[in-house]
Design goal:
CATH architecture of the domain at 618-703: Orthogonal Bundle
Shape: globular
Strand order of the largest sheet: 1-33-34-35-36
Low-confidence stretches: 1-34
Bound molecules: calcium ion
CATH topology of the domain at 618-703: Cytochrome Bc1 Complex, Chain D, domain 2
Helix content: 10-25%
Strand content: 25-35%
CATH superfamily of the domain at 618-703: Cytochrome c-like domain
Radius of gyration: 25 Å
Number of strands: 40
Largest sheet: 5 strands, mixed
Length: about 700
């Protein structure tokens, strides 16, 4: 914190306290008459860079510091005392959508987001509300979600402001003291047939706010944009894949990248969205971005004739001021598996082969753990950290993975590991640099890959205009192939203590479920992790022994974080609603001797009401099921077993009556149900409804 600002704040303190007590914003005269001095959260590059030395109890950036190691030096909660850890406070987050936010704590205030990108500022000691900001996210964007609705992974706090991206692809800046909006820019100012979305947290550094976008599955062309932190003015944009080569290239890197593509990829978007990891090295003034998968997934369709398809599935280092590329490393050349390299990037200084190196660590979806020299991009290590069938190893001379000739799924449809969820996804990992150990939430979840039926039969691929576009087999055709294939290995979630240099797994603990949450490790010798069953667990970081467990009655994917206030250490995380309960999401903060209670919520009423008449023929119901799984299931669940969004088996008679107006009239647009007139005609819509009735009858019969 700068001295000038500290002096100004002390003088202003009575005013700030009065303003806070009155629940209103503090405004008025400002020191020096120049740019307005911030009245809260004065976080700048220098303060973030000095967190380790100056503020061991703070968590002021997404991964705690710019190095994003997510490791805390706090030791009050340790291997012994963790057994007495209990809930200090909790706030409901009144929605069932997935919650993924990493809370930040700056000067005693906690900032976190919900799925619609509301920003909450609360007292980090009590959870008491300071302000809430509603960015007015357009709810109909839920339709363009990769994964069952909206989501948001959190904020950046910088120079008195809080920055967040919204699911409808805007970037907003609000005053950290008051929650008042300062600016709001549309980051989707690039032509696109299907709207861009954003799920990630922005990075604030070097006077700029950096943000990417989501939705490679919706034919997008990925890019990262830098905005002036003060004004919101666009500073530069780095596209991750080339556009139409008959048009001028936006920047020289695109001309280079276009040589690695074939066919007419730009018509299908290409992919490469930067939807998660954006990391900054202040010393090198470099921004590192993790680039997403190809669109569509199948490379034979996306880029017929082959090619590496730069910069898909790559880590790209660019100059923070100009956006000019410094180096790139492609983890999966010619991505064919949805193997994003968007997973969290960790920066560290390590001795590698006797030499001190500035390294970059990443465990992308493809199952290899990469150690790169972050000055040059040189590959130093690439050990497997999860089960894999697609490749055998990485050739350290070429830096390329060696694909397994038995796993060519275009010729022989098959289960592949890692699947499209990756051996590791965005669930944060945590790095203990003193020990050189990475704690990684991994999952072995296979995916059945096959080319689409139409493409196999005709060699042609005609994507639907407004729907997810994977370029792989789906629906009943896929199901038929799956039934003929050998049974897949069981899905597993495994927490691993992993040595990135030797590739050794020091210990591994199988989670209760395959869907696991992010990880936090601390100098107290404890590793914290939540999981999809709602359990929050603490493990001994040396042995993996479970020391503590708490049932949140939720479902957890978000990472825990920790902070210290007035001599007390807290561990906080968000939990989504759980399918089995009549409940919402929440944020929870734990401390030693915490006295808050979390009563078990009422069990969800799973009774399916009596249905209106089924009038469609069996063939029509099959057709309705195909349409349902094409357009509805990603939000309303496989076989209409929905939860995060409406369970359609439980529709009231009035909803059945209004079904056409909802699906083809936008009646519930405000709630996130878009108008599907562009995809479904009246008769098809009725077949979808008939399919839902038929599913409801089947499930009713099974429970009677
Ligand atoms: Ca993807």
């Amino acid at each position: 914190m700068s001295r000038a600002w500290a002096e100004w704040a002390v003088k202003r303190l009575p005013v700030l306290i009065l303003a806070a007590a009155a629940g209103c914003s503090s405004s008025g005269s400002l020191p020096g008459g120049g740019a307005p001095a911030p009245s809260a959260a004065f976080v700048d590059d220098e303060r973030i860079a000095r967190v380790e030395e100056d503020e061991p109890g703070a968590w002021i950036a997404y991964g705690r510091t710019y190095s994003e190691q997510r490791f805390s030096p706090l030791t009050q909660i340790d291997r012994e005392t963790v057994r007495g850890l209990s809930l200090a406070w909790t706030n409901a987050i009144a929605m069932r959508h997935r919650l993924q936010s990493t809370p930040l704590v700056v000067d005693g205030t906690m900032y976190y987001t919900d799925s619609w990108s509301f920003i909450y500022a609360v007292d980090a000691a009590t959870g008491e509300e300071i302000w809430t900001f509603d960015p007015q996210t357009r709810r109909e964007y839920a339709r363009w979600s990769c994964c069952a609705g909206p989501m948001n992974r959190g904020v950046a706090v910088y120079k008195g402001r809080v920055y967040a991206a919204t699911f409808d692809a805007r970037l907003v800046a609000v005053d950290a003291a008051t929650g008042r909006k300062i600016w709001d820019v549309d980051t989707a100012d690039y032509p696109s047939r299907i709207p861009y979305t954003i799920s990630g947290a922005p990075l604030a550094a070097a006077g700029k706010i950096y943000i990417g976008n989501s939705g490679s599955e919706y034919d997008h062309r990925g890019y990262l944009t830098a905005y002036d932190a003060e004004t919101g003015e666009k500073a530069w944009r780095f596209f991750t894949v080339p556009g139409d080569p008959s048009l001028p290239f936006e920047h020289p890197e695109m001309e280079f990248a276009a040589k690695t593509w074939n066919g007419e990829w730009w018509k299908l978007g290409g992919g490469g969205t930067v939807w998660n990891s954006i990391v900054y090295d202040p010393e090198l003034r470099t921004v590192y971005m993790g680039v997403g998968n190809g669109s569509p997934w199948a490379r034979e369709i996306r880029s017929p004739g082959g090619g590496d398809n730069l910069f898909l599935a790559s880590i790209v280092a660019v100059d923070a001021d100009s956006g000019k590329m410094k180096w790139h490393y492609q983890t999966t050349p010619g991505d064919n598996w949805d193997y994003t390299a968007t997973q969290d990037i960790v920066l560290a200084d390590m001795v590698v082969d006797g030499r001190r190196r500035k390294v970059l660590l990443q465990a992308p979806k493809n199952g290899f753990f990469y150690v790169l020299d972050r000055v040059t991009g040189e590959l130093l290590r690439a050990h497997p950290y999860g089960a894999m069938t697609w490749a055998t190893h990485v050739d350290m001379k070429t830096g390329r993975p060696v694909e397994n000739p038995a796993a060519v799924w275009e010729k022989k449809p098959q289960w592949i590991l890692p699947g499209n969820t990756g051996a590791h996804n965005w669930e944060a990992m945590s790095f203990d640099r003193r020990k050189g150990v990475m704690y990684i939430p991994t999952h072995d979840i296979p995916y059945f890959f096959a080319l689409p039926e139409e493409f196999v039969k005709t060699g042609r691929y005609a994507p639907r205009e407004f729907s997810m576009n994977l370029g792989v087999a789906r629906g009943s055709y896929r199901l038929g192939l799956v039934e003929k294939a050998a049974a897949p290995p069981a899905a597993k979630g495994i927490l691993k203590a992993f040595d990135p240099l030797t590739g050794e797994t020091l210990w591994a603990v199988e989670n209760a479920v395959s869907r696991v949450g992010g990880v936090l490790a601390t100098a107290g010798g404890v590793v914290f992790q939540g999981d999809g069953s709602g359990a929050v667990s603490a493990y001994d970081s040396d042995t993996g022994e479970r020391l503590w467990r708490f049932d949140s009655y939720g479902s957890i994917q978000a990472p825990p974080m920790t902070y210290e206030l007035a001599g007390r250490q807290y561990v906080a995380l968000v939990a989504s609603a759980n399918f089995n309960y009549e409940n919402y999401g929440k944020i929870m903060a734990f401390a030693l001797g915490g006295e808050a209670q979390l009563p078990e919520p009422p069990k969800r009423d799973m009774t399916i009401p009596e249905q209106p008449p089924l009038t469609a023929s069996p063939e029509e119901i099959v057709r309705g099921g195909e349409l349902y799984h094409r357009f509805c299931s990603s939000c309303h669940g496989h076989q209409a077993r929905g939860y995060r969004n409406a369970d359609l088996r439980a529709m009231a008679p009035a909803i059945h009556d209004a079904f056409q107006d909802i699906v083809r009239g936008g009646l519930l647009k405000e709630l996130g149900m878009d108008d599907f007139t562009d995809e479904l005609d009246e008769q098809e819509t009725e077949l979808v409804r008939q399919y839902i009735v038929s599913r409801a009858n089947i499930d009713r019969a099974a429970t009677e």
